[in-house]
Design brief:
Number of strands: 0
Order of helices and strands: HHHH
Shape: elongated
Strand content: under 5%
Distance between the termini: 63 Å
Structural class: mainly alpha
Largest sheet: none
Radius of gyration: 23 Å
Number of helices: 4
Length: about 80
């Protein structure tokens, strides 16, 4: 059985984020779980990555080019 590759953490970066950025004391920083630290720094709050599927979905909703149907609504060029 092969072991999975070890995940290396950026400890200096995490410590800067926790102690300098969040103002945690060292004992408070080291008492946190990785999930708690991620939540406190907002690391998990970012938008989902822009994927090929999302690009294709947007292309279907908002096609480019002459003669293609335009989506009508409050954001169309007429401002209606």
């Amino acid at each position: 059985m092969t072991r999975p590759a070890a995940v290396r953490l950026d400890w200096p970066g995490l410590m800067r984020a926790g102690m300098r950025g969040l103002g945690l004391l060292p004992r408070e920083f080291w008492a946190l779980t990785p999930a708690e630290l991620a939540l406190m720094t907002g690391a998990e709050a970012g938008p989902a990555p822009f994927t090929r599927a999302r690009l294709e979905e947007l292309a279907r909703l908002w096609p480019d080019g002459p003669g293609l149907p335009k989506r009508e609504g409050p954001d169309d060029e007429r401002g209606v």
